[in-house]
Design goal:
Order of helices and strands: EEEEEEEH
Helix content: 10-25%
Number of strands: 7
CATH superfamily of the domain at 1-85: predicted glycosyltransferase like domains
CATH class of the domain at 1-85: Mainly Beta
Structural class: mainly beta
Strand order of the largest sheet: 2-3-4-7-6-5
Largest sheet: 6 strands, antiparallel, barrel
Strand content: over 45%
Oligomer: single chain
Length: 122
């Protein structure tokens, strides 16, 4: 499979608060941990809440040594999996594309991602 990414991704576990408002204005959300992060989006591991492709969610990303980043994202893919030894404990690997993010917040993510790649080169 030839995978072409638009943005460099950093495999990193950062804490993310996410919230989706459904059609009845009932907010659902939780805390998640990222699998990876890039300037264009983030992959989250969700524990109990299942989202649908196309859902729009608000994100608050807690980058180490940076102020929190705020973005609005669109769910673009979902992979369901189970943790071995934990019966009926479903997890969801969720790909979120940023659809609304301020330039300052985008630059914070860029700095975070490229700092690790730069440090790894030496």
């Amino acid at each position: 499979m030839d995978e072409r990414r638009k943005f460099i991704r950093l495999n990193a576990n950062v804490v993310v608060q996410w919230k989706k408002v459904d059609k009845e204005n009932a907010a659902i959300g939780d805390t998640a941990v990222s699998k990876n992060v890039s300037v264009g989006g983030i992959s989250l591991i969700l524990y109990d809440e299942k989202l649908e492709i196309g859902d729009i969610i608000n994100l608050e990303i807690q980058l180490p040594q940076e102020e929190n980043v705020f973005a609005k994202g669109k769910v673009v893919w979902i992979n369901e999996f189970e943790i071995m030894g934990q019966v009926n404990k479903k997890r969801y690997d969720v790909g979120v594309e940023f659809v609304d993010i301020k330039e300052l917040d985008s630059n914070r993510i860029k700095k975070y991602v490229f700092t690790f790649f730069h440090e790894g080169m030496f």
